[in-house]
Design goal:
Helix content is 43%, strand content 27%. The protein has 99 residues and is α+β, with helices and mostly antiparallel strands.
Length: 99
Amino acid sequence: MNKQQLVAAIQERALHYKDSGVQKNSVEAVLDSLADVLHGALAKGEDVALPGVGKFTIDRRAARKGRNPATGAEIDIPAKTVPKFSAAKSLKDVVATGF
């Protein structure tokens, strides 16, 4: 599902919760704001939990040795910080049961 499809799906679902119409540009603004908040919080090292969806955290990976698969030569892989997502139990249950 791409961003346009997600915006349309959220707009359609929002109509079931509220009688008033929700504009696509409003939904898109909320999605963009969510991405900005996630980026900012993770950059500061904070966790972000979305109830019913999951939790975004950061994970620090230590430096290690690796191998170049083409040549077999040993290489140094530097330490890095990466985003990590852990799905909520309710999301796991929905996926496991096939909706």
